[in-house]
Specification:
121 residues, mainly alpha, 1 helix
Length: 121
């Protein structure tokens, strides 16, 4: 290994300092870029949090509306079932009444036929 002169040593130290200064400047620029990206990401995260909150609120509102609709539908189906039951009972009563009317009409027809068949014309 050869011994360096003081000027060579000074020059070498100067080159290393320049190299370190350039590295420091590049590192500083990189940190500034990362800081800007972090700020942008923080803003985006805040926006996503807002959107997520709105989505959750919309979901809750929709679930509430669905529950209310389901309750109304259940109520309507119960009312319909009661109406159908009442209609069925009414039809049954009508059928029974019609059967009695048919029996009475048949009895009347039989009486009229007997009356006319006994020579009473």
């Amino acid at each position: 290994m050869r011994i360096m002169t003081p000027e060579e040593r000074f020059e070498r130290i100067e080159q290393q300092l320049e190299f370190l200064a350039a590295g420091q400047a590049q590192l500083f620029a990189s940190i500034q870029s990362h800081d800007a990206q972090i700020a942008e990401h923080s803003k985006q995260i805040g926006n996503l949090a807002d959107v997520s909150l709105r989505i959750a609120q919309t979901f809750d509102e929709q679930a509430s509306r669905t529950d209310q609709g389901h309750a109304r539908l259940t109520e309507a189906l119960e009312t319909l079932a009661e109406s159908q039951k009442a209609l069925a009972e009414s039809q049954k009563a009508l059928a029974e009444s019609q059967a009695r009317t048919d029996e009475r009409l048949n009895a009347l027809i039989n009486a009229v036929e007997r009356y006319f068949s006994n020579g009473r014309r």
